[in-house]
Specification:
The protein is built from eleven helices and eleven strands. The protein has 327 residues and is α/β, with parallel strands linked by helices. The protein has a single domain, classed as TIM Barrel (Alpha-Beta Barrel), CATH 3.20.20.190. The strands form two sheets. It has an eight-stranded parallel β-barrel. The longest helix is centred in the middle third of the chain and has 15 residues. The chain is globular, with a radius of gyration of 19 Å.
């Protein structure tokens, strides 16, 4: 069964790239959809094939000037310009509602202050989101349920459980967050009806905890950035057709044998350049860095700024031609 991929284009990619780079003209409305209506379609989307185009993933929902991270309008803006899937983050409110929020505090991304969990959903909904340039926007913090309902027939989501890797979070709190995810993904849970969800996990133990508690109809985004990590999953109980491999910031030539083994097992590999090329300040230099990331040929590139990849070739044939002509 093939993953649903519907694209309606009203302007050319070249025109979009020019508009994006010049910042002069708002692009015309375009609607791109990558989604899955069953787990089998989700598996197909993340199954490696040597002919598949590279995929760009929007970290924290993607962001642009005036469009904050982890915000439905920001996701809509990105999807109006290009196909992508979104990594998103959540924090609990005081009344135990999951809100779209990367940090466990409000200071960096909103007009509020202090821990998210000290305010109710109603109180949080009155705050305004701030973009990366520090501009206060008219956008507010959505709940996870609102995001899921919005994205059900539009996009695939990669859930990142921030309670697992945030400093200062107790082991009890981490386990409570894991168990909450499990309840929501299990039959009768609020997320069970959605088939467009993958989970980022920080270790084999965490992945196995989900698996042992019956979470089976998701793709796990797991770190495999060393031969030892590969062997852990190779010898573990999680089937390879439930895995997408995060290989860290860049494609490492010394890891080529591991990448081949992953591809042989149908596993796609993903770099996350949020701590790499995304940090290059100069726009021209950053675009060159993005081109190098593409030529290194991971299967998926996760970036804070997905629309900056508009106009960069992502099809394998062109990438291979460019690789062959490099000096």
């Amino acid at each position: 069964m093939k993953t649903i991929f519907r694209t309606v284009l009203f302007v050319s990619i070249v025109a979009m790239a020019s508009s994006c780079c010049n910042g002069a003209k708002e692009p015309e409305r375009i609607e791109h959809k990558w989604t899955a209506s069953s787990f089998e379609e989700l598996q197909e989307f993340f199954r490696y094939s040597p002919g598949k185009d590279l995929i760009i993933s929007g970290h924290r929902g993607g962001m642009q000037e005036g469009f904050p991270e982890n915000c439905i309008p920001s996701c809509e803006k990105t999807l109006s310009m290009m196909p992508t899937f979104f990594e998103i983050d959540f924090s609990f409110s005081k009344d135990s509602v999951m809100m779209l929020m990367h940090d466990l505090t409000l200071d960096r991304t909103t007009t509020g202050k202090g821990p998210v969990e000290e305010m109710t959903r109603e109180e949080l909904s009155k705050l305004k989101l701030v973009d990366r340039q520090g501009n206060v926007t008219d956008y507010t913090i959505p709940t996870l349920q609102e995001v899921l309902e919005w994205g059900q027939d539009k996009v695939i989501f990669n859930f990142d459980n921030k309670y697992i890797n945030t400093k200062g979070v107790s082991e009890e709190r981490k386990k409570a967050a894991l168990d909450f995810y499990i309840r929501q993904l299990s039959e009768g849970g609020d997320w069970h009806k959605f088939h467009n969800i993958m989970l980022s996990t920080r270790s084999y133990e965490e992945t196995k905890y989900y698996w042992d508690n019956g979470v089976r109809d998701v793709i796990f985004c797991v770190e495999i950035s060393s031969p030892e990590m590969f062997e852990t999953y190779e010898n573990g109980i999680i089937p390879w057709d439930h895995i997408m491999a995060y290989i860290r910031v860049y494609v490492d030539p010394e890891m080529a044998p591991v990448y081949r083994k992953l591809h042989d097992r149908g596993v796609m590999i993903m770099t996350s350049i949020t701590a790499g090329s995304d940090k290059v300040k100069n726009e021209s230099d950053r675009r060159k860095a993005y081109m190098r990331d593409v030529l290194a040929e991971p299967d998926i590139i996760e970036t804070d700024y997905p629309t900056e990849f508009i106009g960069i070739p992502l099809d394998r044939k062109t990438i291979h031609e460019m690789q062959n002509t490099r000096f």
